[in-house]
């Protein structure tokens, strides 16, 4: 079900290690460490081998530099020649502070999050299949490195309490049929304990998009989620009795960026919706539409690609949501301790300990 390396102490830098089985889309590489007070730079390299002479190709070179105001340089080394630098001037790393880097491997790019905040995207310049080595160099202390692979698709939905969301004609579409604007009917009416899990990708030149939970009986929208990329405002509202209500905009950190892949979880409890994005709790929204049992449609509009979505029902056993799937605790086995520490992925308990994660 899951593949995960045991967390180990990496006291010796440079570190060079083989990535068993290579990298596949959907995999997460999670690095915990800290930056020494005297650091000038360090780098994380996804390499094609470990040769020194000639130097192995580097598919993804992630290089925080601390001089002046600081920056992060990303690049690719191909046949001992560096390509063009992609420079990010957001600097989430601080000297003397610990960090968590989560690198999500996607089909066409890497997506990097640092300390729960989206940082950057880096398109593949070298085939993902060639990457077999991880190298870490420079002035940095590494506490642990974890590789988390999602192979949940082989699980039996009937045993996991999963209900798919149908389209209007009752069929589950494949990726090519998730056109936006999109409306899908829920198999079951929404009620406390249910979760809607949505996977998507923000368009590269996105202005805004919206995700709505609504009723087919009227034009009412129980929950309107409207991220606006240009202004970095995350609007929440309800449309009731032919009128919009008061907008809610407060959020600690704007969670979206153009081109970004996301997994969005909407958990419904008796009094409010709770929303997490890429495993980070983002907001709460008190119910204005009280007839929860009438909420039976999901609508997606705007500058976004809808990749997948599920309605997850309550389950009699303690369960977790991982990447949009519902898993019984008994299925996690020995993976549980290390997985529970990786709060940066979509991974929340839906049992008595739910509030620990929110």
Automatic annotation (TrEMBL):
Superkingdom classification of source:
Eukaryota
Alphabetized InterPro entries for the sequence: ConA-like_dom_sf, Galectin-like, Galectin_CRD
Which PROSITE patterns does the entry mention?
GALECTIN
- What region holds the Galectin domain? 15-148, 182-312
SMART domains on file: Gal-bind_lectin (SM00908), GLECT (SM00276)
Keyword tRNA processing assigned: no
Q: Which GO terms describe its cellular component?
A: cytoplasm
Any Pfam family: Gal-bind_lectin
Q: Which UniProt keywords apply?
A: Lectin
The molecular function terms of the Gene Ontology recorded here are: carbohydrate binding
KW Disulfide bond (keyword) present? no
Protein's name in the database:
Galectin
Organism (species):
Apteryx owenii (Little spotted kiwi)
């Amino acid at each position: 079900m899951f593949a995960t390396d045991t967390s180990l102490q990496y006291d010796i830098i440079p570190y060079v290690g083989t990535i068993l089985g290579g990298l596949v889309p959907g995999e997460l590489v999670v690095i915990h460490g800290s930056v020494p007070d005297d650091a000038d730079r360090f780098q994380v390299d996804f390499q094609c081998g470990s040769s020194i002479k000639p130097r192995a190709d580097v598919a993804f070179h992630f290089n925080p530099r601390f001089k002046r105001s600081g920056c992060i340089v990303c690049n690719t080394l191909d046949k001992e020649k560096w390509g063009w630098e992609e420079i990010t001037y957001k600097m989430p790393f601080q000297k003397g502070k610990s960090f968590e880097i989560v690198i999500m491997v996607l089909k066409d790019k890497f997506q990097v999050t640092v300390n729960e905040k989206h940082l950057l995207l880096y398109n593949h310049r070298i085939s993902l299949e060639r990457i077999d080595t991880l190298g870490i160099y420079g002035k940095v202390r590494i506490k642990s490195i974890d590789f988390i692979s999602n192979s949940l698709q082989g699980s039996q939905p009937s045993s996991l309490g999963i209900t798919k969301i149908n389209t209007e004609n009752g069929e589950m579409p494949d990726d090519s049929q998730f056109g936006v604007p999109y409306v899908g009917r829920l198999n079951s009416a929404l009620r406390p304990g249910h979760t809607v899990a949505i996977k998507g990708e923000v368009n590269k030149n996105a202005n805004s998009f919206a995700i709505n939970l609504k009723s087919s009986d009227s034009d009412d929208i129980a929950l309107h989620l409207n991220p606006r990329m240009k202004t970095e405002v995350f609007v929440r509202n309800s449309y009731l009795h032919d009128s919009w209500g008061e907008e809610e905009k407060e959020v600690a950190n704007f969670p979206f960026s153009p081109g970004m892949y996301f997994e969005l979880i909407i958990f419904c409890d008796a009094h409010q919706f709770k929303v997490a994005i890429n495993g980070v709790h983002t907001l709460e929204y008190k119910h204005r539409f009280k007839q929860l049992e009438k909420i039976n449609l999901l609508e997606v509009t705007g500058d976004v690609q809808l990749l997948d979505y599920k309605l997850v029902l309550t389950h009699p056993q303690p369960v977790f949501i991982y990447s949009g799937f519902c898993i019984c605790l008994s299925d996690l086995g020995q993976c549980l301790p290390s997985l529970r520490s990786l709060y940066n992925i979509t991974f929340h308990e839906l049992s008595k300990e739910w509030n620990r994660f929110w």
